[in-house]
Known about the structure:
The protein is of the alpha/beta class and 241 residues long. It has one domain: Decaprenyl diphosphate synthase-like (Undecaprenyl pyrophosphate synthetase), CATH 3.40.1180. It has helices at 24-30, 35-55, 75-92, 94-97, 113-126, 142-158, 169-173, 221-231; strands spanning 16-20, 60-67, 100-105, 132-140, 186-189, 208-211. The chain has a six-stranded parallel beta sheet, sandwiched between helices. The protein starts with 15 loop residues before the first strand and ends in a 10-residue tail after the last helix. It binds 3-methylbut-3-enyl trihydrogen diphosphate (2 copies) and magnesium ion (MG). One 3-methylbut-3-enyl trihydrogen diphosphate binds next to helix 1.
Amino acid sequence: MAKEIPIPELISVPTHVGVIMDGNGRWAKKRGLPRKFGHREGVKTFRAITRRAKQLGIKYITFYAFSTENWKRPRDEVDAIMALFEKNLDAVKDFIDEEIRVRFIGDRTALSDTLRAKMLDTEESSKHFTDTTMILAINYGGRDEICHAVKKLAYAVKDGTIQPDDITTDMITERLYTEDIPPVDYIIRPSGELRLSNFMIWQAAYAEYYFTNILWPDFTVSDFDKAIADFGERSRRFGGV
Ligand code: IPE
Ligand code: IPE
Ligand code: MG
């Protein structure tokens, strides 16, 4: 059995952590393997970090798994990633045994019927868990999400239920895929890239960031503990003094 890593003493933990799982392709390339092997390895990290989030008392953790821009990749890579989602959604059910709530964000209309059915089923069977919610972003794009919210508001204006002048930022927030989920406090991006790549652009307005050169498949529970400990050192002012 793998050695349990003791839970560190933490000053504070973020309520909502976002993780941009990046570097799978480079991890595989370094080993002379096709990119899909990197994605497969990345799933192992994802599972370990989800469990750790619960152990650390993190209430929400969102993983960016596939962006609205990732369809630009070669067909065989996209197919391999979709096949991995389908295969691993059965495994995600293990999270139910661990009392982790599972939710999905993103535009589901482009996903296969099988995948969508599995997503709904997982959400339904885990919806009563309250400690930790794991959110998986599939076919997710921040701009696409805002565009959807704007369309909903436009329809409400059209049918007369709201007036344009009454639109508030909260009304936009409530119409995002994240609806009732609090804004992201802390965004972790491995692999050395220093950008958001269209991840939670609205929700990240006051987020803190943690970047590391480690490639996602190599990112360990200890690396995660270290990142979370670093959050405790941050001084957040939200525009105040
Ligand atoms: C992240 O790893 C996974 C997805 C975006 C689906 P990448 O596939 O982007 O890996 P790199 O950035 O090419 O190394
Ligand atoms: C961001 O990674 C998307 C996901 C991790 C799902 P990318 O690898 O697609 O981002 P860019 O292209 O380097 O910005
Ligand atoms: Mg990448």
